Structure formats: structure tokens, C-alpha cells
Amino acid sequence: MIPMRLFVNKVQGKIDRNLYGHFSQHLGRCIHEGIWVGKDSHIPNTDGIRNDVIEALRKVGVPVLRWPGGCFADEYHWKDGIGPTDRRARMINNNWGGVVEDNHFGTHEFLRLCELIEAEPYISGNVGSGTVQEMQEWVEYMTRDGESTMANWRKQNGRELPWKIKYFGVGNENRGCSGNMRPEYYADLYRIYQTYVRNYDGNETYRIACGPNEDNYHWTEVLMREASKYMDGLSLHYYTIPTGDWSDKGYATGFDEQGWFETLKRTLRMDTLIVQHSKIMDVYDPKKKVGLIIDEWGTWYNVEPGTNPGFLYQQNTLRDALVAGINLNLFNKYSDRVRMANIAQVVNVLQALILTEGEKMLLTPTYHVFDMYKGHQDADRLLLDYESPDYTYGQESIPQISASASKDNEGMIHLTACNLNHIESATIQCVIDGGSFTIVSGRVLTDRVLDAHNTFESPERLRPTTLNRAELHEGILTFTLPPASVSVLELR
Ligand code: AHR
């Protein structure tokens, strides 16, 4: 029995809804086929955007959606993606498979998607191969009301009112695919570019600077030292790779117990990365004005055999569900500094929530975790005291339990818990301190097979079921987490 204590009246801060954010890139079949099928498609759509995907994304609650990249963003020239679709310039997608990008899904289409799913747009601007003027004009085009060259052009293209664009990234991975810059050089560029990301007509932009990859603490140090007073957010990218070797990352399915353990061990590194980058940020920004924006995270495997290596298409199993559950609990834990996170990517790419094949669509285990956790969005994080037993495999140990709790504005408590151990269940006895509650629901996502996943033949193989044996008596909540599982309990 694992003792736990939940303090209902000890609020630790607010969990920003944007921690449950997403990322869409012109990469493989994310935009084309996954989201955008065009108005003339036989696949049911609204203004060219798949209806089944709209419905799934509305249901899961997407607070914020990042676009158009990724590495693609710093080769993207927004003017190619506006106006009549048949007259839009075509380009080569040099980063992802060298395929032709027809630019039919551009600014208007992306912002229409955001309206349909009620998500805040997060636009990544082009620093690597774009000019200051190009970035300035994009912001003006989207957000300027009244008379201006760009605003008039937007109106000619059918959009009278400006959009509200809160989140704007000034470049993506300019330390790598988008310019191979030194931090000192990028910091200076950032200061220039962000100056021209102007606030027009009441639009208030939250400017996000390109941050470090993984443990590149030097990058964080330089950016914070040289440019923190000009930024609202600094990004961090960290992908979970089972082998730790980019040349052979391991596959999404068919892994063994070691592949399970190693993956979860590596994903837990997110804890250290957040803590260490935050320490540096604290030196330059003790009031925590600048948010850590983890705008790319998730698993990255070898692509599915037979698929285009540049398309990053991978299956999604129970292991991915654990990766999602663990990371989301961590983001909750550090919500004082982490203000946004965007899993990569929303459809058909890397740790996707949704997979499509022609007119078919399925929801992955990762989707179900986001659905189970959505009660945390904008809720008050509660103090949850517990000491996890070790989960040992071979010579190594990691914590067996990852958990988080919050109270939403209707007084409902959401307790999410992962059992990382692939063999042993975990029975938890949680004292509820500070109120009298009853269990409203308990759901669990689990399977005896570690690489259980959904396919187009069997799309519902893995989905949440009722968490049995959860009881609440005299202020003590007792529940058992099956091996290899993600659960959520709701109390009122
Ligand atoms: O998400 C895939 C790629 O990973 C992104 O385009 C890039 O920013 C990162 O390296």
C-alpha cells in the first residue's frame, strides 16, 4: 500500500491550459491529408478541413496550436500561402522529404482551423531565411485593423476583421535546422526581429524566443542574459528516444521490457531539464515573468517500415500513453515556470494524437491520455504528498508512480496517476485532507500487452475503461493502478 495525502486547501498555483497544447507542421501527412483535404475532397470537410479531425480536436480541448513549424517555419514565406489557392506559389519542403508543398493550407486556413476547434493560434515566424520586414508584414496582415497596406490585402483576400494572434515565436531551432546560429548571434537577431512584431489595435503579443535543445544550458544562459527583457517565453525542445541514438532510435512497436523501461527512464529526464533550465532563468528573471515554453516534446522512433523516412510517421502504443501521462504530470508540477507545452505533433507525425488513412481516422492512446487529463486545464494545482516506491529493472531504478492533482473552478478534483511498472500493480491509499468528497468517476488506460495500439482494423483496441476497486471511505481514497497504466479519478 502506497500512502498519499491530498491537501485540498493547499493550492500550489494555476495549471495553465496551454500546458495541454499541440503542434502542427507541414511535415509528412500532418497538414496534408491529416488536417487539410481541400474543399473538393470526398472526405467530409468544413472549408477543406476534415470534419472527423475537427470533432476529435474539439472534444479533447486544444488550448493552443503551433504552426507552421518546426524547421519548416524558417523556410516558410507566408505570402506564398494567401490569395486564390490555384495561384499560390509551390515550394520544395526541403526539411521533410523534399516533396512539393502547394501552399493551399496557409494563414487563412490555419486560422480557420483554430476558430473551428477553438484553439489559440501560436505562429512561428521565419528568422532563418526570412527578413524582418516579412515578419513585420505578417503580423500586420493578421492583426491590423483599419487602413494599412497589409490589412487591405487581408480584406481583399476575404477576411475583413483582423485576427487576435497572441502567441508568436521568433524563429524555431535557430541553433540547428534554422540557421546553425550561436546564441550570442541569435540573441541579437531576436532583439531586432521582436521589435517589429508589433501590437496593433489591441492585439497583445506574447513573444517566444528560440530556446535550447535538451541540456544546452549555455544557450539558456546567453539568451536570458542578453534578451530576457524582450521576451515573454523561451522555448525548450526535448524528444524521448528509446535508445538515445538518433541513427537507430528503436521502433514504436515490437519493443521488449527493456525498451519499455529505457523509454520511461529517458522521458523522466524532462524533470531534470525543467529544473536546470529554470535555475538559470531564475537568476535573470526571479519573478518568473518569462515562461518556459516546451513547444516540442514527445517520442521519436524509427519511422514505420515502408513509409517515407522524411515523413516521421510512427505508431503509438500504451508506452506512448505513459510518456504522455508522465510529462503532463511534470508540466503540472512545474507550472510556476512552464506556461505552455506542445506535443509533437497532432496528426500522423511523431507522437500523434490522431492517425489517418484516406477517409479513416483513429484516436491513439496519447489522445486518450490528453482526454483523461483535460480537467487539469486552468485548474488549481493541489499539494499531493507521496513517496514513490522504486521500479527496478536490471541495475537501474526509476520512480514507479507519477501523479498530479488539481481542483477546477466547479470544485471537481482530478487526480491523474501513472504506474510505470510493467509487472506490479500499485495500491494507493490517499488521505483527502480538507473536505468531504465522493468519487464521480475513475478511468484507466492499460493493457497486458506493452505495445498494445490501435489500428485501422481495430481502432478501439486501447481506450479508457472503468477503474475498478476505487473506494472512498471516511476521507480515505483507496485505488489500485494496474501495471503499465494511466488513470484519472474525479471527485466532487
Ligand atoms: O518535430 C520535428 C522537428 O523536430 C521539428 O521540425 C524541429 O523543430 C525539431 O528538430
Mean pLDDT: 97
By secondary-structure content and strand pairing, the structural class works out as alpha/beta
Bound molecules: alpha-L-arabinofuranose
Approximate helicity band: 10-25%
Instruction: Point out poorly predicted stretches.
Output: none
N-to-C span? 24 Å
Shape: globular
Query: Please, how many helices?
Result: 10
Q: Biggest sheet: strands, sense, closure?
A: 10 strands, mixed
Q: Calculate Rg over CA atoms.
A: 22 Å
Catalytic activity: Hydrolysis of terminal non-reducing alpha-L-arabinofuranoside residues in alpha-L-arabinosides
Enzyme class: hydrolase
Pfam families: Alpha-L-AF_C (PF06964), ASD1_dom (PF22848)
Organism: Paenibacillus aurantiacus
What is the fold's blueprint, element by element?
Blueprint: E1 2-14, E2 21-23, E3 45-46, E4 49-50, H1 51-60, E5 64-67, E6 91-93, E7 99-101, H2 107-117, E8 120-125, H3 132-143, H4 149-156, E9 167-170, H5 183-195, E10 206-209, H6 217-227, E11 233-240, H7 257-267, H8 269-284, E12 291-299, H9 318-333, E13 338-344, E14 354-357, E15 360-363, H10 365-373, E16 380-386, E17 390-393, E18 396-399, E19 401-407, E20 413-419, E21 426-433, E22 439-446, E23 465-466, E24 471-473, E25 476-481, E26 485-491
The structure holds alpha-L-arabinofuranose.
What does the model show?
The protein has helices at 51-60, 107-117, 132-143, 149-156, 183-195, 217-227, 257-267, 269-284, 318-333, 365-373, and strands at 2-14, 21-23, 45-46, 49-50, 64-67, 91-93, 99-101, 120-125, 167-170, 206-209, 233-240, 291-299, 338-344, 354-357, 360-363, 380-386, 390-393, 396-399, 401-407, 413-419, 426-433, 439-446, 465-466, 471-473, 476-481, 485-491. It has 492 residues and is α/β, with parallel strands linked by helices. The strands form six sheets. The chain has a ten-stranded mixed sheet, covered by helices on one side. Strands 2-5-8-9-10-11-12-13 form an eight-stranded parallel beta barrel, surrounded by five helices. Helix 6 (217-227) runs parallel beside helix 8 (269-284). It is globular, with a radius of gyration of 22 Å. The chain binds alpha-L-arabinofuranose. Alpha-L-arabinofuranose binds at residues 25, 69-71, 172-173, 177, 296, 344, 350.
